[in-house]
Every structure is written in C-alpha cells, then in structure tokens.
Amino acid sequence: MKRSMIFLRCTVCLLCMILILSTSSCFFIPRQRLSHSDTDRTPDTAASNAIQSAKSEETSIASDLVSESVWVTDEVTESPPLPEETTETAAETAEAIPADPSQYFENSLFVGDSILEGLAQYVRAQRQNGIEMLSDAKFLTSIMGIRVADLIGETAEHERIRYLYRGAVHEFSEIISIAKPKRLFLLVGMNDLAGGATVNDTVMRYERLLLHLKTNFPTLEIVVMTPTPKTASSWLPDYCKNPEFGSPLLRSFADRLLSLCKSLSVPCVDIFTALADESGNLPDHFSRDNYVHINDLGSAVVVDTLNRFAKECTVS
Fold it and tell me: At 110, phi and psi to the nearest 5?
C-alpha cells in the first residue's frame, strides 16, 4: 500500500513537469520571428507588428507580380483570346489596307522644271541612304526655265528649250517614245506665267499638251501636278517678267488645272494645297530660295502627297 502511494505521487509529479515544459515552450515561438529592430518591444506588440509587416510584404510582392505579369510577355506560351469584336475589327482593318503605294510609281517618268528638279534631288538622296522612295520612277527636268509652250513646240526654234536625254537633245515626244514609261507625271506651267503669259493662255497650252499626249500615246497614263505656292515675300528674281507673279496667280492656275483635268478625265495631284499655309503661301521653312522652289522639307510633303494619291488610286 505504501509503495503504491509512492508510485502514484511520482507519476503525478512527472505529469506535472511534462505539462509545465509543454506550456512554457509556446512563448518562444513568437520571439524567434521578431527582427532585430523589434527586440526592444514587448512580445505581444512585436509579434503583432511582425505579423502585420509580413502581411504587408506579401501584399506588396503579390501586387508586383500582378504588374510584372502584364509587361513580361516573353514567358507567355499562349496569348489569351481577344474579344470577338476586337478580332473582327482587326480583320476589317487588314482588308482595308491597300497595296504598297510605291508600286504605283513603277516605270513612271516625272517631267518638269526646276521645281521638279528640287524634288528629284531629294528623292535621289533618300535612295542613296537606303530609303525606298517612289519605286523606280525616273525624273526628266530642266533648270533653264522650260515652259509648256516648249513642250508643244509653240516657241521660236532659236528660243525653244529642250530636254537632254541619254546624252542627246530631243523633242519631248521623242523622249516619251524612247523611254516608254507606263505613267507620266507633269509639273510645268509656272515659267509660262513668270514669262508673262496669262493663266488662261497657259491652261490652253496645257490642254493642247494633254490632248497631244492622249492622241499619240493612248496607253500612257498621265498625271498632272499643280504648281507650288510662292512665299509671302514680294521679292521676284530678275528672270521673272510678270510683276503679278505670286500665290494668288498660282492658286488661280492650280484651280484651272484641276478643272481642266476633270474635264479630260486626267488625274491631278494638288500639291499647291498640300504645301500652302493658312494664307495660301509657301511657308518659309519649305522654301529653298524665298521664291517657289521647295527644300527637303517641302519635298517630303510632296512625296507624302503623292503616296496618298497613289493609295487612293490603288483602292479605287
């Protein structure tokens, strides 16, 4: 009996010690999760702050991961499907895109005066820099003040200006026969006006030129380009004999050309409007000489206008 009592007491003591040890170990777990900066705080406050800090950090990391998943696309193996109406819109847009407009200028010949020479220099420079521009179009220009009257043979023989083509001087029609272009772009008439011809006389010459080309080269596609405007300056070079030469006169000529081309079913590119400012003049930053000749910036506008025209023709 006595031995039984001793054994029972020992068993109770052992159980009490186990219970005390198990309970005391719970107070060390939170303290092990505290950072060094939190050691001066009470265990309860530090534990609470540590938990809040951990939750805040997890939220921040989760937010970063969400943001990163939007921008990092090289790890995406399959793109999510687009909304149905977005896909249809993209398809409609793809069908509306016209063919490369540069194809429109294949085997084309641009014929004109010193205005066109400025454009030709710009295009050649861009091509030399590796930029494709106006396909393989060629340029036939003159800086000698060539007129519509020269192209149709209505000037005196000793005064007539002719083009130099492949090392020899030819009449305009001869060059068309030799070059055999698919499409012909014309930019002439300003020297007629500068020489004193009226707008009406110049337009009548232009009509005779177009009718001559349509009759003798029936498969040739002809495109007329309106003149450039003049700067707002009143200055005129010595070779300009017309004191009224300026943007209003050139605007009138451009409008008459547009009407003429419409009546003859000949396409016309209105570069006058593309270049003119709100006052109807050539902006100084497009001018090469404070007159009518365009610089590279102006030439870029003309090329852009030609490309837009080509797109419209391709679509239609």
Answer: -95, 125
CA dist 228 and 193 (Å) reads 13
pLDDT-derived band at 4, boundaries 50, 70, 90: low
Residue 124 within a domain: yes
How many structural domains comprise the chain?
Answer: 1
Q: What is the CATH number of the domain that holds 130?
A: 3.40.50.1110
| Whole-structure pTM value | 0.69
Q: Looking at the domain assignment, is residue 303 inside a domain?
A: yes
Q: How far is CA 281 from CA 103, 250, 268, in A?
A: 32, 10, 20
8-state DSSP, 106? T
* In a domain? residue 18: no
Residue 124, domain extent: 105-315
Q: Is residue 48 part of a domain?
A: no
pLDDT in tens, 145-202: 999 999 999 999 889 999 999 999 999 999 999 999 999 999 999 999 999 999 999 9
Residue pLDDT, tens place only, 261-299:
999 999 999 999 999 999 999 999 999 999 999 999 999
Residue with tokens 């454009």: 119
**Alpha-carbon gap, residue 313 to 316, rounded angstroms:** 5
